[in-house]
Write a structure and sequence with these properties.
Radius of gyration: 28 Å
Order of helices and strands: HEEHHHHHHHHHHHHHHHHHHHH
Distance between the termini: 79 Å
Number of helices: 21
Shape: elongated
Structural class: mainly alpha
Length: about 400
């Protein structure tokens, strides 16, 4: 019935027949809507097996595209998982054959929507069934249809709900599928699903399996920091927070090297109006602080609230004088200069506050001073920003330019 439903999408009428009465024969046409008939049949089927709640879940205002089909099937599976989980094995086994790449797109989408929803709801608590669903979804992560790939990738993180043995056996294949999804150039929805999948799965992956993948993963998600999509950026930043759990022993130095490349964008986006991005930045900064094991920094970040504003955040971080961060300052200053040209006024404001605070610390010491060429570039950039179109940017530059110039003259 689900396959019939999927193949009826976009077909308003599929058949015209004759009306036959006992009194006379008429040639009038009868219009049949296959979608309505299929839905009524599915409702009747679940009602017959005493799953009235499931039958009532099969309601929709329209069913004309894949998005509506996926949503409807998600509602169906959710209802079955909650009110009739004993039916899930039969539903799953009936849909697995229709994930074959040789079948029409509509059938693959419908079957993967069912399997993905089953995985999302943990197969009603049946871990053996969940494991089998996960294996099928992994095979479909390379489907030629972007929507099919997205559905498969969306179900892959369900491995986290499986047994420890299953996670141990399948985490590498799952991570590889998600990392490949991150690189999907055909559909941004696929890459976003893969990024979010990594955020969900990484905390459950044993560190020994994650260490060999950390370097490539860090490099592949980094470009999304500059993405025009806030959702992509938030997920990519969150991945760096997840990777911090592997920064133990000999791997601490490697993580700090990665952190050095992302410190500036994470800081500058920490006041984003996009709540997931803001939270991802603050979580990542907190994770970085824990990796440094520098208690004053950990304490300062835990006391920060977004209401205090960006200048307060930078002041807290710099005043802690964390050695690991101080070593990052020269690279951070060099990376920050490019944000003078950002089209986002928030980033331009934040970079002025960041550079002023960092340079006022580094240039007032003898050991941690930033190169004169970088300081000159910062001053030149600030001078040009006195003509910025945004009033708040001009105000911050006016407040901080003098501090930086005075320190540069002293040195």
């Amino acid at each position: 019935l689900v396959m019939l439903l999927s193949r009826s999408l976009g077909t308003k009428y599929s058949h015209r027949g004759s009306v036959i009465s006992l009194s006379k024969v008429e040639s009038g046409s009868v219009i049949i809507d296959p979608i309505s008939i299929t839905l009524e049949t599915m409702r009747a089927l679940f009602s017959c097996v005493n799953c009235v709640v499931v039958a009532n879940s099969l309601t929709c205002s329209g069913l004309s595209d894949y998005t509506q089909l996926v949503q409807l099937l998600g509602q169906l599976v959710q209802a079955v998982a909650q009110h009739g989980p004993h039916h899930l094995p039969a539903i799953v086994s009936g849909h697995v054959p229709f994930t074959s790449a040789s079948l029409p797109d509509c059938m693959r989408v419908a079957s993967l929507a069912v399997l993905q929803a089953c995985a999302e709801h943990k197969a009603g608590g049946d871990l053996a069934l969940l494991s089998s669903i996960h294996s099928v979804l992994l095979k479909s992560c390379t489907d030629q249809l972007p929507l099919a790939r997205r559905l498969a990738l969306q179900g892959v993180p369900a491995l986290a709900a499986c047994s420890a043995m299953e996670i141990e056996s399948n985490c590498v294949a799952s991570l590889s599928a998600l990392i490949s999804g991150v690189e999907d150039e055909q559909c941004s929805a696929v890459s976003l699903t893969a990024l979010r999948g990594l955020v969900s799965l990484l905390p459950q992956v044993p560190p020994n399996h994650l260490h060999p993948l950390t370097s490539s993963l860090a490099l592949k998600v980094r470009p999304f920091f500059e993405s025009s999509s806030d959702d992509h950026r938030a997920a990519a930043i969150s991945i760096y927070s997840c990777l911090a759990r592997c920064a133990d022993g000999d791997h601490k130095t490697s993580y700090l090297d990665y952190a050095q490349t992302i410190l500036v964008p994470v800081l500058l986006h920490s006041t984003s109006l996009h709540l997931p991005t803001r939270q991802a930045c603050l979580d990542t900064l907190t994770s970085l602080a824990r990796v440094t094991q520098f208690q004053p920094l950990i304490t300062s970040l835990s006391s920060y609230t977004p209401a205090q504003g960006f200048p307060a955040l930078v002041a807290k971080i710099v005043s802690c004088k964390c050695g690991a961060l101080i070593e990052m300052y020269p690279t951070a200053v060099a990376n920050a200069i490019s944000y003078f040209k950002s089209k986002n006024p928030m980033l331009r404001c934040n970079v002025v506050s960041f550079l002023a605070e960092v340079l006022c610390y580094t240039q007032d010491t003898e050991q941690e001073q930033v190169q004169e060429e970088l300081v000159s570039a910062v001053i030149q950039g600030m001078v040009e920003m006195l003509k910025d179109q945004d009033r708040e940017v001009r105000k911050l530059v006016s407040m901080n330019l003098g501090r930086v110039v005075i320190l540069s003259i002293k040195n």
